[in-house]
Amino acid sequence: MSQEINQKLDWKANPDLAALxxxxxxxxxxxxxxxxxxxxxxxxKDGDRRAGLTATAVCSVTADPPRxxxxxxxxxxxxxxxxxxxxxxxxxxxxxxxxVAKVFAGMIKEVHGDARFxxxxxxxLVTGAPALENTxxxxxxxxxxxxxxxxHQAFLCEILATRERNDGEALIYLNGAFRRLPQ
Length: 183
Fold this sequence. Notes:
- The protein is α+β, with helices and mostly antiparallel strands.
- Helix content is 15%, strand content 43%.
- It has helices spanning 15-18, 25-32, 77-85, 98-104, and strands spanning 37-38, 40-46, 49-55, 58-63, 66-73, 87-92, 122-124, 130-132, 137-149, 152-164, 170-174, 177-181.
- The chain has a single domain (15-175), classed as Electron Transport, Fmn-binding Protein, Chain A (Pnp Oxidase, Chain A).
- The protein is built from four helices and twelve strands, in the order H-H-E-E-E-E-E-H-E-H-E-E-E-E-E-E.
- It is globular and about 50 Å long.
- Strands 3-2-6-9-10-5-4 form a seven-stranded antiparallel beta sheet. A three-stranded antiparallel beta sheet has the order 1-11-12, with no helix packed on it. Strands 7-8 form a two-stranded antiparallel ribbon.
């Protein structure tokens, strides 16, 4: 079976720019602290195993077809479960869901693994990946491509089901803290 590569193989980087050094990882992190982003919980389920993590590295790719890209650190259990199941759910958190965001971010040290799902109310949509109730939106997705990006896997996903609500504040992350953004 051949794999289709949709990378622009004939494109060449500017050689003058390619020779320049990049900034440090710390400089990158400090700069990104000023980039306000929506907070999500990425979840997946494979058989009896389920896992999730709080993430901000989610981006819409196209509306037609409906696609997202989700970046997940290779060193977390959720990455392995997404890889084996081929499915994930992106849960876009509302302002009142900060506590569950902290649980899935590992900020509540005594809560690990499957016990994280004891926080919040959970159901499913189409794929079987856990979908958090009362989010601003949930996107239930199948993974169609995986890109190996340094410390992370980039999952290109097609959206199979969505659920949303039209009220509530958004939960964002800015300058090292969760914040609520009113409608």
